[in-house]
Structure formats: C-alpha cells, structure tokens
Amino acid sequence: MVANESPSHHGRKLSVAISPVNPYAGYGTVVTGERFVGRENTLGLLHRTVGAGYSSRALVGEPRIGKSSIARLFLDQLSGDRKINASWVDLSSVETNLTLFDAIYDALVETVHLPSLRQAGSSAVPFTGTKELLRSSTADGRRHVMVIDEFDAVRGMESSNLSVRRLRELISRPSDFGLTVLLCCRRRLSSIEKQIPNLSDLVGVCQAIYVKPFTPAELTEMVARRWKEGLPKAEADSLDEIAGGHPFLSEAFLFELAEGCHYEEAIERSRDTLNSYFKKLLVLLEEDDLLQAARDVAVDGHSVPSTELDALIDYGLINRKTSGLALWSAAFAELLSNEARPVDRWSTDA
Length: 350
What we know:
The structure is a single chain. The chain is of the alpha/beta class. It has two domains: 2-18 and 214-337, no CATH class; 39-210, P-loop containing nucleotide triphosphate hydrolases (Rossmann fold, 3-Layer(aba) Sandwich). The chain is 45% helix and 15% strand. A hairpin with a 2-residue loop joins strand 8 (318-321) and strand 9 (324-327). Helix 3 packs parallel to helix 4 (124-139) and helix 9 packs antiparallel against helix 10 (247-258). The longest helix has 17 residues, at 271-287. The chain starts with a strand and ends in a 13-residue tail after the last helix.
C-alpha cells in the first residue's frame, strides 16, 4: 500500500492509504468479515441465552443499526455445533397472504433436509408439521436456533395474531420443543403487538436486546480501517455531527472521505443518504409514539415522560450528558428543531 496526501478543505493534508477497494464501499449491506466492528457484549449475551437454548430474544433497533449483521455472525458462530440446526427467515420477502408458520416451517424443513408436507393453500401442516419436526429433533438431542429477520412485517401477514400466539407457545417451552428464536425488529415488541388485535404477550417470553450506535472505541476501529491514526478534528467532528456513531451513516460519510473528498464535500454527497434515513426514522418514531418526545429534547431539552424517555434511551437515540439530554445526532436534532423552516444542510426537502 502506498500513502497518498489529499488536500482538505482548509489546505491541510489528510493521509490516505491507497487501496484497490474503498473499505467503506459496501455500506448499506449486511456487514461481514473485517467490516464487522465491536458488538462483543451483544454476541456474548446471545450465545448465553438463545444459543444455549435457554430463552429467546429480540434484537431491537433503528433501521440499519446492525441487527441483521449481528444475527448473521451469531448464526455463523453456531455453525460448528453439530447439535444445533441454525436457520434464517426473512419476513420482508414472505408474501402477505402466507402465515408466519409457512415461513418458519419451510425454513426448518430446508435446514434438516426433509421433504415438505405442506400443500398449497394449507395453513394446518406448517404449524402441526413444525411441532412434530421439533419434537422429533429434540428426542434426538438436537436443538433449533432460528433468526426471524424483519419481524415487524408480521403485522401485515395473514392470521398474524394466531401465528404469534403459536410462536409464543413454542418458544415458551424450549425444553419441550428445542426451539429458541432471535427476532430482529425495528419497533419494540409492545409496539408491534398494539397493531395486532387479540394478541397474547410476546414480550414476556422474548426480552429485548437494544442495538445502539457505536461506542467511541467501536467507531475508532471502523475509522482505522483506512486512517490508522484517526481523522483530523474537522472530519471527526463532522462524522460525529452527522452520524453520532450510527454505523450505516458513518460508513456512508467515510466512503466519501476515502474517495478523497473534502469533508464539506463529503457532507454534501452524503445528503441524499442522510435525508432518506431521517425520513424512515421519523416514520418509525411517530408509529412508536416517540416523535414528540424526541422533538421536545431536540428543541430545548424539555423534560419528557419517563416511559418515553426510557424508550428513547434504550434505542440509543438520546444520550445523557452533563449538560442534560441530547439526541444521538446533531444533524437529526437540527432537523427536528427546525421543522417549521428549511434546514440548510439536513432538510428532508432538499
């Protein structure tokens, strides 16, 4: 590798290691290999609970915070255990006229390499077949660990209330059925349940693990993939202002910097990505009844109800600082506090 010097906005020199591939070029995709940063505590907890067969969990976090990447690595780490059948279900790709157990049953059948007994239009076989398959596997001393990605999509599936009640039945008895699941969802399970009528409490048997923005140490590790000694202050401040440690937004900005852009040019080139993400986050917060609380904090640090404050802290969207409460991203705070007029750099109308 050869070091190259590219000029910054103020005429300073930013040392860039020339590489045939920009190390941030894959931003927006599932993170694997050397791109995966940190998350050791989360992975450890998943192995001690879901992986060990004791209880199911839900990975909860804002969009593109890294839930699927963590879940993928978790399953990969289980692959060497011959006593575990590991499977993956992505509900975002399942047709809405199917049930949750159509997807679960098909994934289990594929994992254990058995012929499917399900006939088109039948909803009975998937659930009864799943119970039979799980019982027979448990008798052989095997267990099943299943990731159900994009679990929010269950809200629009056929017979969602019945399917989720059946899922609760299975995961509440891991010693009988040998099944533990890891749900990946953007919304809290309590919020998902509000949108599904007559639903039993899934929260009680599937506790949440919140995936938050990176810690400073994790962000430093991501930056070091291109800049071993870290970013100059102006670039580092811009990264913090925009992304606040969010891995996807951080990689989007670092990609532009690694292409040789001045940091202000990198901000401009990241605008569309940033605005698109903020729009999705606004919708999520509104559906979760947290938007007004986030807005109150952004405007002038207003106190908010403890339940809403706790939820925003759980998500990692609010940080407690010596000066009071602050949103995770100064750019997002600026957007919320300037909704009545155009925002120079961050407006979603740009």
